[in-house]
Amino acid sequence: MLAFENVLCLGSGIDYFDVTNVGHGNEYNISASMPTPNAGRRRVPPDRPTSSSWVRDNFIVGGVLGSGTFGNVYQIKCRREPGTSYAMKELARNNLPKFIATELRILQRFGGVHNIMRIHAAHRERDRVFIVMDYFEHTPTKEIMASVTVPEILDYMKNLLDALRYLHGKGIIHRDVKPSNFLYNRSKHKYCLIDFGLCEEISVGQSPRKHIGERNALKNLKVSGQNHKICEKNEVRKGVKRKECDCHGLPRVCDICTKRPRLHVNKAGTPGFRAPEVLLKYRHQTFLVDIWSAGITFLSLLCRKHPVMRPNDDYEALGQMAIIFGSEPIEQLARKNNSILLASWDFPGLDMVKFVNAVRNEEIPQQGKYCDTCRNLFFGNYSAKCMCHISEEHSLRQLAPDERQVFEILKRCLIVDPEMRYTAEMLSASFS
């Protein structure tokens, strides 16, 4: 049986509810009537929301607004208020009860303020769960990416960080921040954060600036063939005290390592948006995982490309991060977690301004010597233009003030080490 705890649940005997909100979103005026007989009605396919008598009797169901792993969202109108539109989410039937309960609890407690979606009602019918929320008309992500301006990006940043600052202040980690989960109405300049099924509640008193690595963790990442020796044993052992084993410096795992305790950590999120500490299986993850995801979202807007990174697995994701943000910060973070990250090359990271221009197919000015590393690393860079991080300060000085502000906020979001990454509270101060 699903346990929704303190969230609003309408029983199957309730035929109609008044979705008019009372007060500040914590009270609902619900009026019940006897169910209307369904005799003579055409059978509806079981996968349609109108196959539910509660939905069919109370709503006119329109088209699909969106769909994802956790279910489908429909535009609906209440039969007694046909002029008002709402959004109804039918959660996928394979959702775990804890995810359903989490989403409902977060919406009921915190919805309707600080760019958080407002809930009006929830209903369970056997193994089906429906959530009725505000209808938020928004601009498609593809359209935003095609023509977003710098002032729009700044406003987008401000509003997303405001939503995260509020949630984090309540002890909530969203864990799935990305463009499709932060709706933007371009004509009305309004925003809405959605999808709270992966949220995690932690103690507000837990510092987001201090993390303790799991001492029993060992993560060997395969980046080359099984017979290729990546580095010397002495190099691998630096900074990591472990019992002698047979796989140091080789891209394979020995019996000693396979018997080490496994880490069971939260790795929720969307590939390409998950923070490095999530990929490296940090046990003590905090609100800062949302800040990284917000930074990747901002990077997508700047690049006008969604997603910027599309890794096939966690190893590839770490490799892409190492190219963009530098291999040394990733390796240092792994060592803090008592993990070993094996790589056959070192890369200093990219000049973010040049990287954004390259993704947008804009001209990249040549500064200093030509770079064979960048020529080999980036397709089409036949003239060997250097995009290494060393030129970033010079590139930032060439930008207009508002564009420079965007990049400064971006850099503070995308600090690899979560202990150094800025909080939503700190970043929000950039707009005051």
Would you mind describing this structure in some detail?
This protein has helices at residues 53-58, 97-110, 141-147, 150-169, 233-237, 255-258, 276-279, 288-303, 314-325, 327-336, 352-359, 372-377, 392-397, 401-413, 424-428; strands spanning 21-22, 27-28, 59-68, 71-78, 81-91, 119-125, 128-134, 172-173, 182-185, 190-193, 200-201. The protein has 2 domains: 21-134, Phosphorylase Kinase, domain 1, CATH 3.30.200.20; 179-431, Transferase(Phosphotransferase), domain 1. Residues 1-44 and 207-231 have low confidence and may be disordered. It is 31% helix and 14% strand. The longest helix is centred in the middle third of the chain and has 20 residues, at 150-169. It starts with 20 loop residues before the first strand and ends with a helix. By secondary structure, it is α+β, with helices and mostly antiparallel strands.
List keywords for this structure.
single chain, 432 residues, alpha+beta, Phosphorylase Kinase, domain 1, Transferase(Phosphotransferase), domain 1, 2 domains, 31% helix
